[in-house]
Amino acid sequence: MSPINRRRLLAGSALAAVAAAAPRAAWGSTGALAVADGFAGVNALGQNGTTGGAGGQAVTVTTAAALADYVGRKEPYVISVSGRIQVGDEMLTVVANKTIVGVGSTAEITGGGLQLGSTTRPGNNVIIRNLRFTNAADDSISVTNSAHHVWIDHCDLSDGYDGLLDVKRNSDYVTVSWNHFHDHSKAALLGHSDTYTSDKGKLRVTYHHNFFDGTDQRHPRVRFGEPVHVYNNYYRGNSLYGVASTMDAGVVVEGNYFENVAHPILSGYDKSGPGRVVERNNVYAGSGAPETLGTVVEPRTYYSYTVDDPASVPRLVTAGAGVGRVQGAAE
């Protein structure tokens, strides 16, 4: 796999101590950490890529109260989550310039979720890595309220109430990479609703090397955003559909591996009007034919990338996606 596709962000000294011990699948061929890739790595809106809490104080939290405290502070922080944290039936509001990273393979947030930003406190420049999310009372992760430059990487998301990872309400410049979605229906919504037209011109998101493992739908389900870049993901046994482009969204779907997915790519879904889709170099193993429509702005307009051989995607993604591949704070 190319170093470009595997770039990772050094988000403070708490991560540096364990870089040499992390598997090659997580850190890239050189074993070194680098910057966030995809749309999260683009310089825009006054933000130079996504740096999270780099330069801020490094802290470790073991309770919901401590987690809620630090993610809501105005200063930058690198927050290491240790062990299983039971959150009440609520979304903890994460404000700007935070890195939230799990320690080892057992860090978990359960019962609640993380919401990036509020209407008065933006959730820009946030990194979430190496965390397990289970049994959220609402969304597991919600990128909302004009949050931009967000990187969600190497997480495990399952058994939520609504969406596992939603991006909506004018959010922009987001990368979702190397995550494992499973045991849930609605995986990844992009775009709030058919009537929320202010999302036009925003919702630029990259999804790469994620494992959509038996989840039913929304991988992603897109409204309005363009370009949305979906590449080198592994889709397995998704009962409703893989990717859906609706409401004149523009989605590029390339280098993915669809296995036993009857409707791998849709243009339009349910009551939502059709969106534009360009597909290329995908594998459809035991799957139906993709729907395509129109033209889409090329992701290379914004950033460089290299697509892995789609035939290798099941092996690469199952070996590298999810928690425990990227270490948190030194243990």
Automatic annotation (TrEMBL):
Record-linked Gene3D superfamilies: Single-stranded right-handed beta-helix, Pectin lyase-like
Domain Pectate lyase: 54-264
Entry keyword Secreted: yes
Matching Pfam families: Pectate_lyase_4 (PF00544)
A GO BP annotation: polysaccharide catabolic process
Record's GO cellular component terms: extracellular region
Superkingdom as given in the UniProt entry: Bacteria
Secreted is among the record's keywords: yes
Signal peptide span: 1-16
Keywords: Carbohydrate metabolism, Lyase, Polysaccharide degradation, Secreted, Signal
Family per record: Belongs to the polysaccharide lyase 1 family.
Name assigned to this protein: Pectate lyase
Organism classification: Bacteria, Bacillati, Actinomycetota, Actinomycetes, Pseudonocardiales
